[in-house]
Each structure stands twice: as structure tokens, then as C-alpha cells.
Design a protein that fits this description.
With about 600 residues, the chain is of the alpha/beta class. The protein has 18 helices and ten strands. The relative contact order is 0.08.
């Protein structure tokens, strides 16, 4: 049974497609006229074929009759040629239409999808989302093909055939007309009844692809944890569910074809029987038998095409519906209608009574207050789950605060545009992910209008120019998906080079040297000192030895500030910071009673 939500989404999917199609009125007109021309020519030619057979039945072989037959054959040839020409015009128009609209649909789907929040993407399989975008655009092609290649021309041909046959014999025309209407309505009903099977099959297909993408992206983990057999069995479960859904869908469709074949046999016998009766009365000619069979075969072909296209049509609707679900999901993080660009003069950051949670009964930040002045270097420390990384995500507005506010130079970040906010902040994550693009492109992403020389200079400051230059293709080396061809330390240095190139007034470092060996860390620490000059800096620290010389260290526990000061001041105060320092400096974790 189709859900109400699904029924509501279908018109929206069509509205997206229709909106793009009507933007090409010239192509749409050519497509319609091309199909009309092709079908009209196909309807007229059997009338001349009827005359040929009537003439042949007369056994008159006089020169005049032969000449008339030759002329008739010539007319049929012209009609066939015109039908071919109209078909070619239609094909070129539909190819142009589909290529342009599909490109726009791809762009629109990507544009809307990529604006979803960090939370949205962390809850989805990348492979499933990729599949949905691809199927959404491909669904348009199948829906337009079904409409213009099958439904529209079939309507013209069947209506024309019924009208001509009705003109020759009212009874046979009415029989064919009523049968055609009943046939189409029955197929629509059966196809709609089949739709839940198609929707379920489409869902299982997306889940299977998502599981495949998840396994491929984690191949290294699978190998290291001897998970090959487990993943085989897990993926097999997805494949089995998809296979069963596919079998049920095909079985149902096979039953529809069986009903369709039976109906075609019935109408063929009925019309032939009727034709024989009326021929015996002298109301039909031999040529009319040819006319009836030609139209009947054409009608069968058209209606059979409708049945096959209905399957693809509803499959396409189900595919489009998956993407429309994403369109129906509003963007969690949105600019206000009157949002203005952020203006950074000093780079002062202030968290005011910030509360944040994923679940109301498990708050992450509880009344978090902190001010970071212009040029101040502040580190956040605390045990796992204290809320350190959440602070940076809120500052970058990957999430919105539940209560309180975050201000930069007195401007609430919820009131400014997201683009201007993130342009003002350079962020180096603990585990940087790179594009499967060249090293040049990855570094230049920090400032996409930077020259090659500026990229080289940033790489030198981040101490990655050396290892890049040693590569056979240098800066044109592709780094693999998510940067897997580079070591963790190399990826970290590329991320730092990107931040250096961006040169934003606010710098956020999430343990930016965590993946480096001691020698590389020493070099990077020097680079970071240069990078930090004149900037407001917020550092998430896991290794306390890296933030000993910060202007201020803020200690978090259970989402609240429990202490702050310099390294020496916090050690003198004792408490949580001293405990964390003792654990790291001592190289062991004390017993619970300690």
C-alpha cells in the first residue's frame, strides 16, 4: 500500500521535471510535431495498402491498373520516408532536450544535497547519496522516453486507428475502441498495484549500493581486522534482499504480461470473426482485412510498448522519489533571509551561555562561556566527551546552538552568512581528508584564486614542499580517494599548507600535529608559530605538551569550563588539568583508587 507521503511526493517529482522541460519550448514543440507527423504517416499508409489488395483481388492486369498500383506504391514510399524524417526530427529534439535537462537536474540535485548539514551527511552512506543523485537524473530520461516514445504516440495511433476503422465499420471500430480503453485502464491499475514492489526493489538496490560503498571505503579496516568473511556474509544479506525484491517484482510483471497476451488473443479473434461476418454480407473487402490486421498489429505494438514503459515509468518514479525525499528535507543550517556578511576587524570570539545537545537528556555543552581576545592563543583541553570538538563545530556553524550565542567581533554568527563565517576561519582537523585530485588542487583549495607560486610558498612553510618535489609528478600527483596515497603526516602537512594559504584572521587547530613524527612535528611547530602570528587561535589539545606555551588553557569537563589559565598556573591549582598532565607526563594511567 502506498503511503500518503509517497503520493504527495510524486507530483513534486513531476513538477521538478516539468519545470525544466517547459524552459525549452522550441524543443518541446519539435518533439510533439515530430511524433504527430510520424504517427499520422503511419496511419495513412495502410489505407493505400488496402487499395492495393482490393485491386489485386479484382485480378485486373490492365496497363492502367498496373500504373495505378505503381503510383500507389510510390505514395506509400513517400509516406514511409516522411515517417522516417519525422522520426529523425523527433529523435534529435529529444536527445537535445534530455541532455540539457539531465545536466540541470544533476546540478540542482548536487547543489541542494551539498548544502545539507554536517549531521545529515554523518547519518548517510555516501554511496547511497551518490546513487540517489544519479538515479534522479536518469529517471527523467526514462519518464520522458515513456511519455514521448510510448504514451503520446500510442494515443495518437490508437485513436486514429479506431476512428478510421469506425469509419469503415461502426461495430468493429467500437469493439477496438472499447477494448483499447479497457486494456490501458487495466494495465495502469495493475502497474499501480505493482508499484510498492518496485519501490521496495529500488530501496533495496540503494541499500545494497550503500553497503558496497561502505565496505569499499573501509577496505583497510576489513583487512586488518580479518573481516573479509564477515563482510562477505553481510553484503550477501543485502544482495539476497535485493534479489528477492527483484524476483517478486519480475514475477508480478510476468503475470501482467500474461494477462496482456490473453487480451490480445481475444481481440484478434473477435475482430477477425467480425470481419469475416461483415465480409460475407458484402460490407468489407479483402483490403479491409489487411487494414484491420495492420491497425491491430500496430495497436498491439503500441499497447505492448505502453505496458513495458509503464514498468520503467513507475520504476523511474520510485527512483526520483528517493531524491525528492532529500529535497523535502529542509537544510538544517540555513542563512537568515536578512543575513549579512561577517566583518572581522579584530577576530574576538565570545561564547555566551552556550547550550548544545544531540539528545535533550544528554547535554554536550552546559552554559559554556568563554571570550577569546584579538590575537590570543587559547587551547581547550579535557577528557574525552568533554565537548572540545563540539565547540569548534559550533564556531564553524556545522551545528546551531540550542541556547545562548556565539559572537565574532560582536556579531552573532547565526545572523551572518555561512560562507563569510567560514571564509574568516582556517580549520585544520585532526584527521584531514583530501580530494582525489592533485596536490596542487588540494592545497589551492585554501584560496582557489592563488597562484602557483603562492601554493609553493605555503607548501614550503608547511614543510611539505620537500616530499612533494620528490614525487615523480610533483604537485600534479593525484592523492587517491580521501588522500589514501599519502601518509597521515603528509596529509596533515597538506592541510596545514591549505590553512597557511587561506590566511584567515581566525585559526582553529584540532591537534594539527597529532599524525606527525617527532622530527616533522618540530618543523611544523615552527610553521604554526608563523601561521599564528596576528591571528586569533583556538586549539583543541589532546597532547598537553603541544599547548604548554598557549596564552591561556581552558579546561572542560562535562560541557562546562572548570578551570582556565596558563600551563604553570593550572599545574599550581591542581585539579583536572594536573591529573591529565600527570597521566601524560608519567606515561601510564593510574589505578582507579588513585
Amino acid at each position: 500500500m502506498e503511503s500518503t507521503a509517497t503520493k504527495r511526493r510524486i507530483p513534486k517529482a513531476f513538477s521538478f521535471y516539468f519545470r525544466e522541460v517547459v524552459k525549452h519550448p522550441y524543443l518541446l514543440t519539435v518533439m510533439i510535431l515530430g511524433q504527430i507527423g510520424a504517427q499520422v504517416a503511419g496511419l495513412i499508409s495502410p489505407l493505400f495498402l488496402r487499395n492495393i489488395f482490393n485491386t489485386l483481388a479484382s485480378h485486373d492486369t490492365s496497363a492502367a491498373v498496373i500504373h495505378g498500383l505503381v503510383v500507389t506504391v510510390g505514395i506509400i514510399g513517400v509516406l514511409y520516408f516522411l515517417q522516417w524524417i519525422a522520426g529523425r526530427i523527433y529523435v534529435y529534439a529529444v536527445m537535445d532536450m534530455e541532455s540539457q535537462v539531465m545536466a540541470k537536474l544533476y546540478r540542482y540535485a548536487f547543489s541542494y544535497l551539498i548544502k545539507h548539514s554536517y549531521h545529515f551527511f554523518s547519518s548517510q552512506f555516501a554511496g547511497t547519496l551518490t546513487r540517489r543523485v544519479s538515479k534522479y537524473s536518469a529517471a527523467f530520461e526514462r519518464i520522458l522516453d515513456a511519455t514521448m516514445d510510448s504514451f503520446f504516440p500510442a494515443t495518437i495511433f490508437v485513436v486514429g486507428a479506431v476512428a478510421i476503422l469506425f469509419f469503415r465499420n461502426h461495430v468493429l471500430g467500437v469493439i477496438l475502441g472499447v477494448w483499447s480503453i479497457c486494456f490501458v485502464l487495466l494495465q495502469i491499475y495493475l502497474s499501480r498495484w505493482h508499484r510498492p514492489h518496485r519501490t521496495y526493489r529500488s530501496e533495496q538496490d540503494s541499500k545494497m549500493v550503500g553497503a558496497l560503498a561502505d565496505a569499499i571505503s573501509n577496505q583497510n579496516t576489513i583487512t586488518l581486522f580479518s573481516g573479509t568473511r564477515h563482510e562477505d556474509e553481510r553484503f550477501a544479506e543485502f544482495v539476497d534482499r535485493w534479489s528477492e525484491a527483484l524476483r517478486r517484482s519480475w514475477t508480478f510483471m510476468s503475470n501482467i504480461w500474461g494477462v496482456q497476451g490473453l487480451l490480445m488473443v481475444a481481440i484478434n479473434i473477435a475482430l477477425l470473426y467480425g470481419a469475416v461476418i461483415f465480409w460475407g454480407r458484402g460490407e468489407l473487402t479483402i483490403g479491409d482485412f489487411v487494414l484491420i490486421q495492420t491497425y491491430l498489429l500496430g495497436t498491439f505494438s503500441m499497447l505492448n510498448g505502453i505496458t513495458q514503459q509503464l514498468r520503467g515509468f513507475y520504476d523511474a518514479v520510485a527512483d526520483a522519489d528517493e531524491m525528492v525525499t532529500i529535497f523535502n528535507a529542509p537544510h538544517e543550517i540555513r542563512d537568515l533571509p536578512d543575513a549579512v556578511p561577517l566583518t572581522v576587524s579584530n577576530g574576538m570570539i565570545e561564547f555566551k551561555a552556550v547550550r548544545f545537545y544531540f539528545h535533550a537528556d544528554r547535554p554536550v555543552l552546559r552554559g559554556f562561556d568563554i571570550m577569546i581576545c584579538h590575537g590570543e592563543k587559547v587551547a581547550l583541553v579535557g577528557p574525552s566527551g568533554a565537548g572540545k570538538s563540539t565547540v569548534t563545530k559550533l564556531l564553524l556553524r556545522l551545528y546551531d546552538v540550542k541556547d545562548g550565542s556565539i559572537e565574532i567581533d560582536g556579531q552573532n554568527i547565526a545572523d551572518v552568512t555561512q560562507e563569510s563565517l567560514r571564509n574568516a576561519i582556517a580549520f585544520v582537523p585532526q584527521e584531514p581528508l583530501l580530494f582525489h585530485r592533485t596536490l596542487m588542487e588540494n592545497i589551492r583549495y585554501g584560496r582557489r584564486d592563488a597562484s602557483n607560486e603562492e601554493v609553493y610558498e605555503a607548501a614550503r612553510k608547511a614543510h611539505c614542499h620537500e616530499f612533494i618535489s620528490a614525487l615523480s609528478e610533483g604537485y600534479e600527483t593525484f592523492v587517491g580517494e580521501r588522500g589514501v596515497k599519502l601518509s597521515g603526516g603528509e596529509r596533515q602537512r597538506i592541510a596545514i599548507a591549505r590553512a597557511i594559504l587561506k590566511n584567515a584572521p581566525i585559526l582553529v587547530l584540532d591537534e594539527a600535529t597529532s599524525s606527525l613524527d617527532s622530527e616533522s612535528e618540530s618543523l611544523i611547530q615552527d610553521s604554526l608559530k608563523v601561521l599564528m602570528e596576528g591571528k586569533t587561535v583556538l586549539v583543541i589539545a589532546h597532547r598537553l605538551s603541544t599547548i604548554m606555551h598557549m596564552d591561556r588553557i581552558v579546561v572542560l569537563e562535562n560541557g562546562m569550563v572548570v578551570a582556565q589559565g596558563t600551563h604553570d598556573e593550572l599545574l599550581r591549582k591542581g585539579g583536572l588539568y594536573q591529573k591529565l598532565w600527570s597521566i601524560q607526563a608519567g606515561g601510564f594511567i593510574p589505578d582507579e583508587e588513585e
